[in-house]
From TrEMBL:
SUPFAM superfamilies: ApaG-like. InterPro entries: ApaG-like (IPR050718), ApaG_domain (IPR007474), ApaG_sf (IPR036767). It comes from Nonlabens tegetincola. This is ApaG protein. Pfam families: DUF525. PROSITE patterns: APAG (PS51087).
Amino acid sequence: MIQQVTRGIKISVQTSFEGTFYKNYKMHYAFGYKITIENQGKDSVQLTYRHWRIKDSLSKTEHVDGEGVIGKKPVLKPGERHSYQSGCLLTSPFGNMSGHYTMVNFTTTKQFNVVIPTFKLSAPFALN
């Protein structure tokens, strides 16, 4: 498990390899990830936006931006956590993801970014 704390917000990431399949005459590797966001600070916050950098070892880096996570903009009071699961497809058995969440602090009304630590995606059969 990969973890990182930014401004009192702890991000934990667990990954899994889900399998392979062909799409458009190309082999694709499916990966899943579970993210837990925990508010270890003293103020309530809301996740409003996400930015991902998805690096495939055989192709260029892809950037994905959007509101919230899986259709939600969770509010986290001090001590609360929010978990969700998602996934991505790569064209190689290796890659990584990283990025940030944009949060709003309800006490100060200011936005801030929370780092999503870089996590590796690797198919177990491809490891040496």
